[in-house]
Design brief:
11 helices; globular; about 425 residues; single chain; about 35% helix; alpha/beta; 3 domains; FAD/NAD(P)-binding domain; six-stranded mixed β-sheet; five-stranded parallel β-sheet
Length: about 425
C-alpha cells in the first residue's frame, strides 16, 4: 500500500510542503499526499494587513487549493481537523457547513501513515475583558475583509451625510510587525480614499493610535530598527503609546491598566499568538501553555514519531537557547524545506535531519512611505536597510513564496500581469 502523508493546514508552510512533496513523491507515486484545510483558497498571512486596509484585492492574490493540488500531484480535502486517534492512525474532520448553516460535507475520518500538523496560530487576547466581543482580529482573510468593509462603511456614511467634516478613530493593540504595518497602510488608505472623492473624512482626521504593553515598538526586533520605525509613524501622525497594557475594551473605547481611556470606533487586536485550542485535546500529545505542540529538533512530536508539527503551532527548541524558534514566516519556510527532505528520507529508512533556525533578518514595510529592516547573512553579518532598498527586499519575500508555489515562470507572468493591471484598476479596493 502506498505511504499516506496527510498535511493539516494550508498556510505558507503547509502549502509549500504539500507542493514540494507532490512534485517529488506524489509525481513518482511513492507516496499519497493529502492537504487538509478549512478554506478553499490560500492567501499569504503577512499580506492580511494590506487586505484590511484595501491596498490588496484578496480575490486576485489568492490561490485555489484544488487547482494547486491538480498541478502538483497531491490531493486536497476541505475540512477542519477536530480530533485524532493515534492507535488507528486516523484524524477526525468536523462537518463543514455552508453559509446558511446547512451541512455541506459530513464529519469524516482520514487515515494516515505520517501526519504533519501545520495549523498556524491565532491572535492571543490574553483573556482581556471585552477584547473578543469588540476587537477585530487579522487571522484570516474573512476577518481582514470585515475590517476593510467597516472602514469603507465609515467613509461612505460620511460621504452621504451632510456634515462638513467627520472623524474616524482607529486603535491598534500591539506594536509588532502587523500592528505597525497596518497603521502605515491605513494612513496611506486615508490619502487614497480622499483622492477618490471620499473626502468628507480628511486624511488628517483619521486618528490612528498604536498601544503597546512593552517599552518600544517592534519588541521582537533589534532597537536600531524600532527607533526609525517609531519616528516614521509619528511623522505620519500616528499616536504611539508604549508601556500601556490594555485592561478592558468596550464598544467605543479601550482602557489601559493605568486608567487612561482611548476613544476608538475601529479596534484591532494584533498582540500575541497562541495555537488553536483543539491541539490541547488531540489524543494526549504534549502541548505548552499557548497550545503549541512540543516537538523535537527533528520536528517530530515528543510522544509520537509518526506525527510531525511545524510553523506557529509547534514549540521547537533552539540549540544553545532556552527559547523556542520564533513564530515567523521564515521559520515556517525553513521547516517546510527540511521536512520535504526528512519525509523522503523517512520513506527510504534513512535518519532524519534536525532543524536549526537561521535568522535571515527582518523587514517591516511602512506602506509607500518607507521600509526598514536588517538582513543577516553568513558573509555580510547584519546589514541595516532603509527606504526603497528595504521595500524591494520586502516585496521579494512574497515573490519567493510565490516561486515556491508556482515556479519561476508563472511567478514572472503574475508579476507582469499585476504590472499591466495597475493602469486599469483603482489603487485601493473600493467595495
Amino acid at each position: 500500500m502506498t505511504h499516506r502523508i496527510v498535511i493539516v493546514g494550508g498556510g505558507a508552510g503547509g502549502l509549500e510542503l504539500a507542493t514540494r512533496l507532490g512534485k517529488t513523491l506524489g509525481k513518482k507515486g511513492s507516496a499519497e499526499i493529502t492537504l487538509v484545510d478549512a478554506n478553499l483558497t490560500h492567501i499569504w498571512k503577512p499580506l492580511l494587513h494590506e487586505v484590511a486596509a484595501g491596498s490588496l484585492n484578496s480575490s486576485e492574490d489568492e490561490l485555489n487549493y484544488v487547482a494547486q493540488a491538480k498541478w502538483n500531484h497531491f490531493q486536497f480535502q476541505l475540512g477542519r481537523m477536530s480530533g485524532l486517534d493515534r492507535t488507528t492512525k486516523q484524524i477526525q474532520l468536523a462537518a463543514t457547513l455552508d453559509e446558511d448553516g446547512r451541512e455541506l460535507l459530513p464529519a469524516r475520518t482520514l487515515g494516515y501513515d505520517t501526519l504533519v500538523i501545520a495549523v498556524g496560530s491565532n491572535t492571543n487576547d490574553f483573556g482581556t475583558l471585552g477584547a473578543a466581543q469588540h476587537c477585530l482580529f487579522l487571522d484570516t482573510r474573512k476577518q481582514a475583509e470585515r475590517f476593510h468593509q467597516q472602514l469603507l462603511n465609515h467613509y461612505l456614511r460620511a460621504h452621504a451625510g451632510d456634515q462638513a467634516k467627520e472623524k474616524i478613530s482607529v486603535a491598534i493593540v500591539g506594536a509588532g510587525a502587523t500592528g505597525v504595518e497596518l497603521a502605515a497602510e491605513l494612513h496611506h488608505a486615508a490619502h487614497e480614499l480622499a483622492a477618490y472623492g471620499l473626502d468628507r473624512i480628511k486624511p488628517e482626521d483619521m486618528h490612528i493610535t498604536i498601544i503597546e504593553a512593552g517599552p518600544r515598538v517592534l519588541p521582537a526586533l533589534p532597537e536600531r530598527i524600532s527607533v526609525p520605525v517609531h519616528q516614521t509613524l509619528e511623522k505620519l501622525g500616528v499616536k504611539v503609546m508604549t508601556n500601556a497594557a490594555v485592561s478592558e475594551v468596550s464598544a467605543d473605547s479601550l482602557k489601559t491598566a493605568n486608567g487612561e481611556v482611548i476613544e476608538a470606533g475601529l479596534k484591532v487586536w494584533a498582540a500575541g499568538i497562541r495555537a488553536p485550542a483543539f491541539l490541547k485535546e488531540i489524543d494526549g500529545l504534549e502541548t505548552n501553555r499557548i497550545n503549541q505542540l512540543v516537538v523535537r529538533p527533528t520536528l517530530q512530536t515528543t510522544l509520537d514519531d509518526d506525527i510531525f508539527a511545524f510553523g506557529d503551532c509547534a514549540a521547537c527548541p533552539q540549540p544553545g537557547s532556552d527559547r523556542n524558534v520564533p513564530p515567523r514566516a521564515q521559520a515556517a519556510h525553513q521547516q517546510a524545506s527540511l521536512l520535504a527532505k526528512s519525509l523522503k528520507a523517512r520513506l527510504e529508512g534513512k535518519p532524519l535531519e534536525t532543524y536549526t533556525y537561521r535568522d535571515y533578518g527582518s523587514l517591516v514595510s511602512l506602506s509607500r512611505f518607507s521600509a526598514v529592516g536588517n538582513l543577516m547573512g553568513n558573509l555580510t553579518g547584519s546589514v541595516m536597510l532603509e527606504g526603497w532598498l528595504a521595500r524591494m527586499f520586502y516585496v521579494s519575500l512574497y515573490r519567493m513564496h510565490q516561486m515556491a508555489l508556482y515556479g519561476t515562470f508563472r511567478t514572472l507572468m503574475l508579476m507582469l500581469g499585476s504590472r499591466i493591471g495597475r493602469g486599469t484598476e483603482p489603487r485601493l479596493k473600493l467595495h
